[in-house]
């Protein structure tokens, strides 16, 4: 089976996850093409797709959102698996549920044969945050260290 593993990543962790998924698929005998969704790879020629994006403010990155809207059509159903990468999985609760049901995942449910969606833990480096975010990050770290 020929599989597209497409990703949208801002700082690289989603790309790394896509590469790990591709490696596992190759171990199982599949032909895999790992591509940035910003390159808008055509779905023609693939028998299945695994699509993923970093999640910011409850939504996939624009490259992934644009790709889902443009490349998925009800008449061209194919098996699709999806993954979202973000801090919601780390924080849990309402944040995790909110990320599970993003607009993009709902669109995939409507326009493809979405087999499964997984929310994965993202990586956070303080240097990726604005000044206020860095302060909050530091405070949260201090709170977690309290007995």
Structure overview:
- There is one protein chain.
- This protein is an alpha/beta fold and 147 residues long.
- It has one domain: Rossmann fold (3-Layer(aba) Sandwich).
- It has helices at 13-27, 62-71, 88-91, 93-100, 103-111, 131-145; strands at 2-8, 31-36, 48-56, 59-60, 79-86, 113-121.
- Strands 1, 2, 3, 4, 5 and 6 form a six-stranded mixed sheet that branches.
- The longest helix is centred in the N-terminal third of the chain and has 15 residues, at 13-27.
- It is globular and about 50 Å long.
- The relative contact order is 0.16.
- This is Menaquinone-dependent protoporphyrinogen oxidase.
- InterPro entries: Flavodoxin/NO_synth, Flavodoxin_dom, Flavoprotein-like_sf.
- Its EC number is 1.3.5.3.
- GO terms for molecular function: FMN binding; oxidoreductase activity.
Please describe the topology of this protein.
Elements: E1 2-8, H1 13-27, E2 31-36, E3 48-56, E4 59-60, H2 62-71, E5 79-86, H3 88-91, H4 93-100, H5 103-111, E6 113-121, H6 131-145
Parallel strand pairs: 1-2, 1-3, 3-5, 5-6
Antiparallel strand pairs: 3-4
Protein name: Menaquinone-dependent protoporphyrinogen oxidase
Enzyme class: oxidoreductase
GO molecular function, one term: FMN binding
